[in-house]
Design goal:
The protein is built from ten helices and two strands. Strands 1-2 form a two-stranded parallel sheet. By secondary structure, it is mostly helical. The protein has two domains: 146 residues, no CATH class; 79 residues, no CATH class. The two termini are 34 Å apart.
Length: 239
Protein backbone atom coordinates (compact mmCIF):
# COMPACT_ATOMS: atom_id res chain seq x y z
CA UNK A 1 0.00 0.00 0.00
CA UNK A 2 2.83 2.38 0.91
CA UNK A 3 4.50 1.66 -2.43
CA UNK A 4 1.29 2.52 -4.30
CA UNK A 5 0.90 5.80 -2.41
CA UNK A 6 4.55 6.65 -3.08
CA UNK A 7 4.12 5.86 -6.78
CA UNK A 8 1.03 8.09 -6.99
CA UNK A 9 2.98 10.87 -5.28
CA UNK A 10 5.80 10.54 -7.81
CA UNK A 11 3.38 10.68 -10.74
CA UNK A 12 1.61 13.78 -9.39
CA UNK A 13 4.92 15.46 -8.65
CA UNK A 14 6.17 14.68 -12.15
CA UNK A 15 3.03 16.15 -13.74
CA UNK A 16 3.27 19.33 -11.65
CA UNK A 17 6.97 19.74 -12.43
CA UNK A 18 6.30 19.31 -16.13
CA UNK A 19 3.53 21.89 -16.08
CA UNK A 20 5.67 24.40 -14.17
CA UNK A 21 8.45 23.92 -16.70
CA UNK A 22 6.02 24.57 -19.55
CA UNK A 23 4.77 27.78 -17.92
CA UNK A 24 8.35 28.95 -17.34
CA UNK A 25 9.13 28.30 -21.02
CA UNK A 26 6.08 30.28 -22.08
CA UNK A 27 7.12 33.24 -19.95
CA UNK A 28 10.55 33.19 -21.58
CA UNK A 29 8.93 33.34 -25.01
CA UNK A 30 6.58 36.08 -23.83
CA UNK A 31 9.63 38.25 -23.11
CA UNK A 32 11.16 37.68 -26.56
CA UNK A 33 11.13 40.23 -29.38
CA UNK A 34 9.17 38.54 -32.18
CA UNK A 35 5.52 39.43 -31.69
CA UNK A 36 3.83 36.91 -33.96
CA UNK A 37 6.32 34.07 -33.50
CA UNK A 38 6.82 34.25 -29.74
CA UNK A 39 4.97 36.97 -27.83
CA UNK A 40 1.42 36.54 -29.08
CA UNK A 41 1.34 32.70 -29.15
CA UNK A 42 2.80 32.54 -25.63
CA UNK A 43 0.33 35.20 -24.48
CA UNK A 44 -2.57 33.03 -25.63
CA UNK A 45 -1.08 29.91 -24.06
CA UNK A 46 -0.40 31.64 -20.73
CA UNK A 47 -3.91 33.09 -20.66
CA UNK A 48 -5.27 29.54 -20.78
CA UNK A 49 -3.71 28.84 -17.38
CA UNK A 50 -5.96 31.55 -15.92
CA UNK A 51 -5.39 32.05 -12.17
CA UNK A 52 -2.21 29.99 -12.13
CA UNK A 53 -0.09 32.58 -13.97
CA UNK A 54 -1.30 35.74 -12.22
CA UNK A 55 1.38 35.78 -9.47
CA UNK A 56 4.18 35.60 -12.05
CA UNK A 57 2.54 38.32 -14.15
CA UNK A 58 2.42 40.55 -11.10
CA UNK A 59 6.17 40.04 -10.66
CA UNK A 60 6.73 41.03 -14.29
CA UNK A 61 4.83 44.28 -13.80
CA UNK A 62 7.89 45.53 -11.92
CA UNK A 63 10.32 44.42 -14.65
CA UNK A 64 12.49 47.19 -16.11
CA UNK A 65 13.50 45.34 -19.29
CA UNK A 66 13.08 46.95 -22.71
CA UNK A 67 12.68 44.46 -25.59
CA UNK A 68 11.89 46.09 -28.92
CA UNK A 69 9.27 44.09 -30.79
CA UNK A 70 10.12 42.74 -34.23
CA UNK A 71 7.97 41.34 -37.01
CA UNK A 72 5.27 43.93 -36.37
CA UNK A 73 4.20 44.77 -39.94
CA UNK A 74 0.51 44.18 -39.16
CA UNK A 75 0.68 45.34 -35.54
CA UNK A 76 -0.45 48.79 -34.44
CA UNK A 77 0.83 49.75 -30.99
CA UNK A 78 2.59 52.66 -29.24
CA UNK A 79 6.20 52.22 -30.28
CA UNK A 80 5.53 50.85 -33.76
CA UNK A 81 8.01 52.39 -36.19
CA UNK A 82 5.74 51.93 -39.19
CA UNK A 83 1.99 51.95 -39.47
CA UNK A 84 0.31 50.44 -42.51
CA UNK A 85 -3.18 51.65 -41.63
CA UNK A 86 -4.55 48.21 -40.82
CA UNK A 87 -3.80 45.23 -38.63
CA UNK A 88 -3.84 44.02 -35.04
CA UNK A 89 -4.34 46.96 -32.66
CA UNK A 90 -2.89 46.66 -29.16
CA UNK A 91 -2.86 49.99 -27.23
CA UNK A 92 0.02 49.05 -24.92
CA UNK A 93 3.70 50.06 -25.07
CA UNK A 94 4.74 46.44 -25.36
CA UNK A 95 8.42 47.11 -25.94
CA UNK A 96 8.54 47.29 -22.15
CA UNK A 97 8.13 43.90 -20.49
CA UNK A 98 6.30 45.48 -17.54
CA UNK A 99 3.57 46.88 -19.78
CA UNK A 100 3.50 43.72 -21.87
CA UNK A 101 2.73 41.87 -18.63
CA UNK A 102 0.08 44.47 -17.83
CA UNK A 103 -1.54 43.85 -21.22
CA UNK A 104 -1.86 40.13 -20.54
CA UNK A 105 -2.95 40.73 -16.95
CA UNK A 106 -5.75 43.07 -17.99
CA UNK A 107 -6.97 40.75 -20.74
CA UNK A 108 -6.91 37.77 -18.41
CA UNK A 109 -8.63 39.46 -15.46
CA UNK A 110 -10.84 42.01 -17.28
CA UNK A 111 -9.50 44.65 -14.92
CA UNK A 112 -8.44 48.18 -15.83
CA UNK A 113 -5.19 48.86 -14.01
CA UNK A 114 -4.26 51.63 -16.43
CA UNK A 115 -1.49 49.92 -18.38
CA UNK A 116 -2.93 50.86 -21.76
CA UNK A 117 -2.61 54.55 -20.90
CA UNK A 118 1.14 54.30 -20.29
CA UNK A 119 2.94 55.43 -23.44
CA UNK A 120 6.68 55.59 -22.81
CA UNK A 121 7.85 54.92 -26.33
CA UNK A 122 9.42 58.36 -26.70
CA UNK A 123 11.11 58.53 -23.33
CA UNK A 124 14.23 60.72 -23.26
CA UNK A 125 16.72 58.60 -21.33
CA UNK A 126 19.09 61.54 -20.85
CA UNK A 127 16.48 63.35 -18.79
CA UNK A 128 16.67 62.05 -15.22
CA UNK A 129 13.26 63.50 -14.45
CA UNK A 130 11.64 61.40 -17.17
CA UNK A 131 13.39 58.26 -15.96
CA UNK A 132 12.26 58.99 -12.43
CA UNK A 133 8.71 59.57 -13.65
CA UNK A 134 8.79 56.22 -15.46
CA UNK A 135 10.07 54.38 -12.38
CA UNK A 136 7.45 56.01 -10.18
CA UNK A 137 4.72 55.05 -12.64
CA UNK A 138 5.96 51.46 -12.84
CA UNK A 139 6.18 51.19 -9.05
CA UNK A 140 2.70 52.64 -8.67
CA UNK A 141 1.24 50.12 -11.12
CA UNK A 142 3.05 47.24 -9.43
CA UNK A 143 1.78 48.20 -5.98
CA UNK A 144 -1.74 48.71 -7.30
CA UNK A 145 -1.79 45.22 -8.81
CA UNK A 146 -0.26 43.59 -5.73
CA UNK A 147 -2.88 45.20 -3.51
CA UNK A 148 -5.68 44.01 -5.82
CA UNK A 149 -4.37 40.44 -5.84
CA UNK A 150 -3.89 40.35 -2.09
CA UNK A 151 -7.54 41.31 -1.66
CA UNK A 152 -8.92 38.98 -4.35
CA UNK A 153 -6.62 35.98 -4.81
CA UNK A 154 -8.57 33.58 -2.58
CA UNK A 155 -11.90 34.00 -4.35
CA UNK A 156 -10.82 34.95 -7.88
CA UNK A 157 -12.00 33.03 -10.93
CA UNK A 158 -12.09 34.12 -14.54
CA UNK A 159 -15.84 33.57 -14.80
CA UNK A 160 -16.36 35.71 -11.72
CA UNK A 161 -14.06 38.34 -13.23
CA UNK A 162 -16.20 38.39 -16.38
CA UNK A 163 -19.36 39.03 -14.37
CA UNK A 164 -17.65 41.73 -12.33
CA UNK A 165 -16.37 43.49 -15.45
CA UNK A 166 -19.78 43.47 -17.14
CA UNK A 167 -21.39 45.35 -14.24
CA UNK A 168 -18.46 47.71 -13.65
CA UNK A 169 -19.68 50.64 -15.81
CA UNK A 170 -16.02 50.95 -16.85
CA UNK A 171 -16.11 51.14 -20.64
CA UNK A 172 -12.69 49.50 -21.02
CA UNK A 173 -13.56 46.59 -18.75
CA UNK A 174 -16.99 46.08 -20.29
CA UNK A 175 -15.54 46.28 -23.82
CA UNK A 176 -12.80 43.77 -23.02
CA UNK A 177 -15.31 41.36 -21.49
CA UNK A 178 -17.71 41.64 -24.43
CA UNK A 179 -14.88 41.28 -26.94
CA UNK A 180 -13.83 38.11 -25.15
CA UNK A 181 -17.36 36.69 -25.14
CA UNK A 182 -17.70 37.36 -28.86
CA UNK A 183 -14.27 36.38 -30.14
CA UNK A 184 -12.22 35.00 -27.24
CA UNK A 185 -9.65 32.32 -28.01
CA UNK A 186 -8.74 31.34 -24.47
CA UNK A 187 -10.32 29.31 -21.69
CA UNK A 188 -12.69 30.35 -18.94
CA UNK A 189 -13.57 27.53 -16.58
CA UNK A 190 -17.31 27.18 -16.08
CA UNK A 191 -18.37 29.30 -19.04
CA UNK A 192 -20.96 27.72 -21.34
CA UNK A 193 -23.97 28.72 -23.42
CA UNK A 194 -26.39 28.42 -20.50
CA UNK A 195 -24.28 30.65 -18.25
CA UNK A 196 -23.92 33.15 -21.08
CA UNK A 197 -27.65 33.35 -21.82
CA UNK A 198 -28.89 33.34 -18.22
CA UNK A 199 -26.16 35.17 -16.32
CA UNK A 200 -23.85 37.19 -18.57
CA UNK A 201 -25.86 38.48 -21.50
CA UNK A 202 -28.51 40.13 -19.26
CA UNK A 203 -25.72 42.14 -17.61
CA UNK A 204 -24.85 43.72 -20.96
CA UNK A 205 -28.47 44.45 -21.87
CA UNK A 206 -28.92 46.62 -18.78
CA UNK A 207 -26.83 49.30 -20.52
CA UNK A 208 -29.57 49.76 -23.12
CA UNK A 209 -30.72 52.98 -21.45
CA UNK A 210 -27.26 54.13 -20.40
CA UNK A 211 -26.28 57.76 -20.86
CA UNK A 212 -22.89 56.52 -21.99
CA UNK A 213 -23.24 56.02 -25.73
CA UNK A 214 -20.41 53.48 -25.88
CA UNK A 215 -22.06 51.29 -23.25
CA UNK A 216 -25.40 51.73 -24.99
CA UNK A 217 -23.89 50.54 -28.28
CA UNK A 218 -22.44 47.50 -26.54
CA UNK A 219 -25.89 46.63 -25.21
CA UNK A 220 -27.40 46.91 -28.68
CA UNK A 221 -24.58 44.83 -30.14
CA UNK A 222 -25.17 42.03 -27.65
CA UNK A 223 -28.93 41.74 -28.18
CA UNK A 224 -28.63 39.03 -30.83
CA UNK A 225 -25.36 37.48 -29.68
CA UNK A 226 -24.81 33.95 -28.49
CA UNK A 227 -21.62 32.20 -27.43
CA UNK A 228 -21.13 30.49 -30.78
CA UNK A 229 -17.77 31.99 -31.79
CA UNK A 230 -16.26 31.43 -28.36
CA UNK A 231 -17.43 27.81 -28.27
CA UNK A 232 -16.00 27.15 -31.73
CA UNK A 233 -12.69 28.65 -30.67
CA UNK A 234 -12.58 26.37 -27.63
CA UNK A 235 -12.69 23.29 -29.86
CA UNK A 236 -9.42 24.46 -31.39
CA UNK A 237 -8.01 25.43 -28.02
CA UNK A 238 -5.81 22.61 -26.79
CA UNK A 239 -3.34 23.54 -24.07
Amino acid sequence: MKKIIFLIFLIINSICSGQNHKIDSLFLKFKESSFYEDVYPSKIALENYQKEVIPELIKLVGDTTFVKLTGTADLIYPGAQKWYGHGHYVPYSMDWVSIRAGWLLEELTFQNFGFSTINIGNLNWKDKREKEKLNNSRNYQAEKVKKWWKENSDKWSRLGALKEALVSNDIKRVSNAVQYLRFGETKCNGLNQEIFINDLKPLTLKYKNSQNMDLKKISELMENEDLGNWLRNQKKNVR
